[in-house]
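Lay summary. Proteins are chains of building blocks that fold into shapes, and those shapes determine what they do. In this project we predict the shape from the chain. Here is one chain we studied, written as its sequence of building blocks.
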Amino acid sequence: MTKMTLGAHPYMLGFEQLERMLERSAKSGNEGYPPFNIEQTSENSYRITLAVAGFAEDDLAITVEDRQLVIRGRQSDDSQDRVFLHRGIAARQFQRSFVLADGVEVGDAIMENGLLHVDLTRAQPESVVQRIKINKG
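And here is the predicted shape, written in a compact code that computers can read:
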């Protein structure tokens, strides 16, 4: 039995990009660092919150690359002159990616109390019904 892909189904026209986005999101790291929340703040807006304690604003980069929100963190290593008896606070770099649907735009990014909030908004959908005029050949 052959595997039928979304783009190959006869009634699903133009969904090849959706299939690629699903594959890309499945491949993005399932690592649990840093922990994050996603909440719906209104009917057309969302907020992603990452726990980034120990990171300064200059240690973080937020970009949108090919409909994918990418948040990267990299701390400078200032522990060379310090002697740790126990080091339990993570000081490692990270990258978190979130695939954005068409019409979702990234808004503000706010840093407060060790949490990075990134606000997203979804544009209002246009009319669903579209009438196509038939021209005479």
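What the prediction tells us: The radius of gyration is 21 Å.
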